[in-house]
UniProtKB/TrEMBL annotation:
Biological source species: Epilithonimonas mollis
Pfam families: Thioredoxin_8 (PF13905)
UniProt keyword annotations, A-Z: Isomerase
Occurrences of domain Thioredoxin (ranges): 27-171
Protein's recorded name: Thiol-disulfide isomerase or thioredoxin
Domain of life: Bacteria
One example GO MF annotation: isomerase activity
Keyword Isomerase: yes
SUPFAM superfamilies for the chain: Thioredoxin-like (SSF52833)
InterPro entries, alphabetized: Thioredoxin-like_fold, Thioredoxin-like_sf, Thioredoxin_domain, Thioredoxin_ResA/DsbE_sf
Length: 171
């Protein structure tokens, strides 16, 4: 009986705290999502629209992560491989750290200071993350050259659909 209760609790826990593929795979960002503000490591505020505008004409991979996230840390080697394999692709790292201090410390700890990083200073729940159905990290989105969403939902940097999407966009 005790074993059944333990397995039941583990099952419920796993269901309640795991990535679920969104029902609708979006192909563009809403105005509200694009107006979402983030901060860089120096505290400069920028919108998602500004970030996408800076990368317009290029394929862009958005990588959602945090230093407290074990799955994110475990994904770092594969994410690095994806970057190295796609040197002509832009990568932007969007942190879900809880504080600006932890954001800066994680950038240092994981040697990410040379990458383009931003932090959701307003927390996990915001217009951008709500719009993209962010329910777990890591998460990857591939954005096309016109700032449309080419690959909406990937949970691992070695998801073959990320690379095949990049390949299709760069033919």
């Amino acid at each position: 009986m005790k074993r059944i209760l333990i397995y039941s609790l583990l099952f419920v826990f796993k269901l309640g705290f795991s990535q679920n593929v969104p029902e609708v795979l979006k192909t563009e960002f809403s105005k509200e999502a694009l107006a979402q503000t983030l901060e860089d490591e120096k505290g400069k505020v920028i919108t998602m629209n500004d970030i996408l505008h800076q990368h317009k004409g290029k394929v862009l991979v958005l990588d959602f992560w945090a230093g407290w996230c074990r799955d994110c840390i475990n994904a770092f080697p594969k994410a690095k491989e994806l970057e190295e394999k796609n040197k002509n692709i832009d990568f932007v790292f969007l942190s879900l750290e809880r504080t600006q201090e932890s954001f800066r410390k994680s950038l240092e700890k994981f040697q990410m200071n040379d990458k383009e990083n931003y932090w959701f200073a307003g927390g996990w729940k915001n217009n951008f993350n709500n719009y993209i159905d962010l329910n777990w990290i890591p998460r990857y989105i591939v954005v096309d050259q016109k700032s449309g969403i080419a690959k909406y939902y990937a949970i691992s940097p070695d998801d073959p659909e990320i690379q095949s999407t990049i390949d299709k966009l760069t033919l």
